[in-house]
């Protein structure tokens, strides 16, 4: 049975991973056209014939579930059921995919052309493909790729087509539909579109969930969606959204299918197409609305080298195995299955837990390039450092990363100086080497720029660079939090360190993938890794840093430094500047200009606090911890600040105040 | 569940068996004509003869003495078994040394002797009443292992008053009483609790087998609870009546056992289940005798106390006499069958039949595996003409109508009533079937389906001779979940077998055996070749356990008619809630505070 023990191997060094094959290689040596028109006959779920899009729609519209909700909505609104039914039909029309093999072939042709120009290699683990092929035949399959780029879902379909696997139907954000022609093309290659927010719309939810479930129950096609909900602009995994996961699990809970298999897929880009776009977006330059002409402008990027892509298809995870002893399916026996119900607490926490597990599985199989190590070091040396020192430190970090289980793609049989220099060459837009010294490109110095503009330019570089460092955070996050906890704790007593650790986990649970409720486990994992690397020793309930552990701990501390500072700046803002009538909308610009002031005044050297992602996460943390609360005034939401609480959080983060006895402490 | 074996051995009239119209014996040692380590009559069994052909021995059943040419192939292909090479024969007789010595209560024995009620503590008598027909019980017997705990003595009361005396003495001397009817329990209900230190008395009801009176004005009969199903039916038939209660075990199971397990009969659509048939129950408990004061057809006098007894599984007392509804024997009876392209269509048809409330006396839907199995049990065809007709039928269904032989399934039907109504009814059902793609497939197929019901139990013994373990279990489930439940349970079994190291693909098969307004009863068969397994019974039990979990998770009940016994006790709390269980416990505590009826079933 698929992976009953997801983390059975305690030592991450021992993780076994498959080898990769480059799928572009064959494309470079044979006809693209032939490839696009070749025979495509994927294996299907238990020999099922794929269903015509129209038949699928009528199945959805005639389902008991939808009929029930239509009647309900009709009773509540006083509209005739026919009209509501019509509405449902319109929603479905707007949503549904219209997979067409000809469109797929068109994409197969054009994408091959594009991929060959953009990327050196597209590497796929073929064993994962074989596992997937097996899984598709036996159970409904849900593909869960990581989401870093627009490329992701085209790439996924492209790979599945290449390997003659059933093409997925993909949940895509409605914003794509704005791109008229492309939107329809995507629809015909299997995308279906969902509105970004439809919180209270019962009918929309019903149509949407029934559509997904119908496809799942009948195994018409693998379903693909992004657990993270949206592209991560920071290259750090986003905390998972559980709405869709809930939907695809329900048919299992209700016994409508024997099992559902979730396949975590890690897509790692050596360079992301949207690299600098993201940094600007995070700094408050609004995201360009998706438009076809915008995409065409993006052709400029075709002339650049984006390195290689690694796509790792993970071991399919059986929901049945995961849910064993965790979800009592009998709970679903007492209400007809077509009547929608809120998931129980038990179910909800199971789904959340699963979502985190899957994201962690995605992270675990993310392929990391040497540049990621270098970026992490450079960010701790913003003033730049000697090339030889950078090489030396990169090698040191490589050892540490590997002992923590990083999936590092370090070229074999290549001198390390060469590895470093070719990474620098690929990322020459971000980093420059002059006089044997390596430093970040900190904006164009020429011309007349205001201090704000200069700051902004530096911030773009830092955030771009951070997006690479972020890729390795999942490897170090637990040891790094422990390092900070050791640093901040009043003593080396294990339970005090744990209190501190637990506080930081709570504080950063929107920032990093830390499954709520796993704190004890995370702590043990962190201790294990640091003890194993010889950085700390545990002596009679004390955690003591060893001599040779100093450098490791200082690196790990440095890794989280910007986050600690960033959150403190947000706290500081709330204590010093925020007025009573601060609305949610005003928050981001306000905190940004607060930070800009601090930086310009020379009181702050942390650029990452300018990132709206960090600002949002910090606010979410403060809201979650009750230091800030939302108050609805008229039709605006304002933020009410409990200054005392914010202040104490700020001081605890800075290590100036001992951590309050955490409720979780039970070691 | 109780059952008594053929004190009057006769065969079921409906299945046209050979009748021996005399009492084989009236001695309490009925085990002489029954297998001691398997199902049914000693003279009836499946075997592979010297030519390697399967045959069914004896003269009792329609299949008796016939050669079954396709069984061997089916058997070997289905289970990966080998008739020639891999035999696992049973030990020929019980190793009496393995039997724990009788732990007799002398004072009780003395008082019992004074009453004149017969009793025995012979080894054979005790072992025979120490078990039902669960796989682990039969397996242990075949291996000559016997049981950890068996009754210390057996007693044969002759009437209600005898039972009253026995129970009084049991209370006085604190001995444990386990009522025994027909011995066909498949829930471990007859097993003696190993931790029971008191003397265990098996109270065998087989001598209480009379029809006390028949009331033709109200169409009820007063019957002693030890009577065996087929005897009851035969005796009533003599007067032109029947009860219509025909559980598959009716050759051997007893009226008291039916009451104690909430039994269900094949023809419940016309006659009702046991709880619908019973008008009055007399039961002897440690607190005294409980019975209602009248035989009104329905009462509003608080919760029906009969329902404490129905399904009590021998934990509260002994049912001694029952007043039961009877009906005139139907004028006309007709079998029928329908072939469906697949199981889904079949279930949809049965659902529609239930919706229109026009179910025949019996309607059962077999899945494809069972359909194929039924084929394997076809006797040698005597004439070329028959085989030609068979061939034509097959051609018509699979080639002309395009049914996939690995998908199609069959419903068997039994209609009863006056001729005209039966024919009308038949048409109505076939019309519904046609809407779901069903094709009428003849009376023969239908009739054979019902004959198989009685011989199928014998097949397990054949399997056990060749390393194949098999068992059946059942549930009831709302209509909308029938298909999901069947699919998931089968898949779960296959999955569990694989995980537990079963080397061969298991056989899983199900049939819908009863229809109700709100759901259906589903019956599963499950068997596998256990070669290479260290402890096949344990493996089997783990798989069955998982299958039951799966049933419950899919909205099925803990049991439709087999009962709970000891096999399914662990799920009772989950099934009826803490409070529900508390209610049952408080009844037990009041009625039997000293746990005289100490078989420890149910609660």
From TrEMBL, chain A:
Record key words, sorted: Acyltransferase, Membrane, Transferase
One Gene Ontology biological process: fatty acid metabolic process
Keyword check for Acyltransferase: yes
Domain Phospholipid/glycerol acyltransferase: 141-270
Gene Ontology molecular function: any one: glycerol-3-phosphate O-acyltransferase activity
InterPro entries according to UniProt: GPAT/DHAPAT, GPAT/DHAPAT_C, GPAT/DHAPAT_LPLAT, Plipid/glycerol_acylTrfase
Pfam families: Acyltransferase, GPAT_C
Subcellular location field: Membrane
This protein's pathway: Phospholipid metabolism
Protein name: Phospholipid/glycerol acyltransferase domain-containing protein
Species name: Esox lucius (Northern pike)
Gene it is expressed from: GNPAT
UniProtKB/TrEMBL annotation, chain B:
Domain FAD-binding PCMH-type: 147-329
EC number: 2.5.1.26
Keyword Transit peptide: yes
Cofactor or coenzyme needed: FAD
Subcellular compartments: Peroxisome membrane
Any Gene Ontology CC annotation: peroxisomal membrane
Alphabetical keyword list: Acetylation, FAD, Flavoprotein, Lipid biosynthesis, Lipid metabolism, Membrane, Peroxisome, Phosphoprotein, Transferase, Transit peptide
Cross-referenced InterPro entries: Alkyl-DHAP_Synthase (IPR025650), FAD-bd_oxidored_4_C (IPR004113), FAD-bd_PCMH (IPR016166), FAD-bd_PCMH-like_sf (IPR036318), FAD-bd_PCMH_sub1 (IPR016167), FAD-bd_PCMH_sub2 (IPR016169), FAD-linked_Oxase-like_C (IPR016164), Oxid_FAD_bind_N (IPR006094)
GO biological process: ether lipid biosynthetic process
Stored Pfam families: FAD-oxidase_C, FAD_binding_4
Marked site (Important for enzyme activity) residue numbers: 364
Binding site for substrate: 460
Entry annotation: catalytic residues: 523 (proton donor/acceptor)
Recorded family membership: Belongs to the FAD-binding oxidoreductase/transferase type 4 family.
The name this protein goes by in its record: Alkylglycerone-phosphate synthase
Native species: Esox lucius
Gene that encodes it: AGPS
